[in-house]
């Protein structure tokens, strides 16, 4: 069964009624590409660019970044590549950023806030990405957007860099939805963002007020909690008002039984770990959009994460 599943994984994913769902991979660097392609990734939905910035005494130059992004784009053989701009701060400290000491780093200068605080960093990263050829292959995603002003400021810088480079091809600039305020303001943000990708790891941490690295809370930190599902539903609703697409790149995109729920809420792209891709595709292929909407509605009506898991285990005992 798994050999057949792996063969089928190399076909693009469609629901039983023909609805196209993109199933792509999360990448932490170049070395992850072979396995992602072997498991049927249709591209990369989250390149965590931190790998380029860690374990160094200075920030990587624009040219070093560009060469790396180009090799990754080439390695994906024309498939789409979403590069997330540096998501530093909090658990990922970089000595050369000279970030101030913070009492609560998870609520401090992190994600896009660092890029706006040190715009030369964000500028170099935008330039490095925009120089990748062919021009349409890369999309750019901003981490930890909480406010409209943040995406506006980042977009202004992005447009400046495009002008500088004489870059005229359209490039999608999207945001991660991983802070409750972004989900609650999705309609407003969708006017400014070309797409949304839900970072369910942080969205769960901030929605439930549970530190994602605290082992004492790990059991309760569950991205399928109905509170998180409601935020995802709001995100999809807001996106649809402006005809934007929504993906999920947090951990729940790698849980096969969660995939139909996410699709039923309006998600059309899932960025998973390579290992999860064949099973995610196999489950989705047997269902229609209507089936997905039905189970999503049931999941939203549950009173706890445990109840959602029970529902999904009853619905797909084999998955
Ligand atoms: C997330 O928060 O869900 C996410 C994908 O980003 P990271 O895990 O890198 O914070
Ligand atoms: Mg995150």
TrEMBL record:
Highest taxon of the lineage: Bacteria
Full-protein interval shown: 534 to 852 of 852
Family per record: Belongs to the PEP-utilizing enzyme family.
Protein name per Swiss-Prot or TrEMBL: phosphoenolpyruvate--protein phosphotransferase
Gene, per the UniProt record: ptsP
Segments crossing the lipid bilayer: none
Species this protein is from: Rhodovastum atsumiense
Localization per record: Cytoplasm
């Amino acid at each position: 069964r798994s050999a057949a599943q792996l063969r089928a994984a190399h076909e693009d994913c469609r629901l039983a009624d023909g609805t196209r769902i993109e199933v792509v991979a999360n990448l932490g660097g170049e070395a992850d590409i072979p396995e992602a392609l072997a498991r049927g990734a249709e591209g990369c939905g989250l390149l965590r660019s931190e790998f380029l910035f860690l374990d160094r005494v200075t920030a990587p130059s624009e040219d070093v970044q560009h060469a790396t992004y180009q090799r990754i784009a080439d390695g994906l053989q024309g498939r789409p590549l979403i590069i997330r701009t540096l998501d530093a701060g909090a658990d990922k400290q970089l000595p050369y950023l000279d970030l101030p000491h913070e009492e609560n780093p998870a609520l401090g200068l992190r994600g896009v806030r660092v890029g706006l605080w040190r715009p030369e960093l964000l500028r170099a990263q935008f330039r490095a990405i925009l120089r990748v050829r062919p021009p349409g292959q890369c999309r750019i995603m901003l981490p930890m957007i909480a406010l409209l002003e943040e995406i506006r400021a980042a977009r202004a810088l992005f447009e400046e860099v495009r002008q500088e480079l004489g870059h005229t091809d359209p490039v999608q600039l999207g945001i991660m939805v991983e802070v409750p305020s972004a989900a609650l303001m999705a309609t407003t943000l969708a006017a400014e963002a070309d797409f949304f990708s839900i970072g369910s790891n942080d969205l769960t941490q901030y929605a439930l007020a549970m530190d994602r690295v605290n082992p004492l809370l790990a059991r309760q930190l569950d991205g399928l909690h109905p509170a998180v599902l409601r935020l995802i539903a709001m995100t999809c609703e807001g996106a649809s008002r402006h005809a934007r697409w929504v993906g999920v790149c947090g951990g729940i995109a790698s849980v096969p039984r969660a995939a139909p729920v996410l699709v039923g809420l309006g998600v059309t792209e899932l960025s998973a770990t390579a290992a999860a891709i064949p099973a995610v595709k196999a489950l989705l292929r047997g269902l229609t959009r209507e089936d997905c909407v039905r189970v999503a509605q049931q999941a939203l009506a549950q009173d706890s994460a445990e109840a959602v898991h029970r529902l999904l285990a009853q619905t797909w005992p084999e998955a």
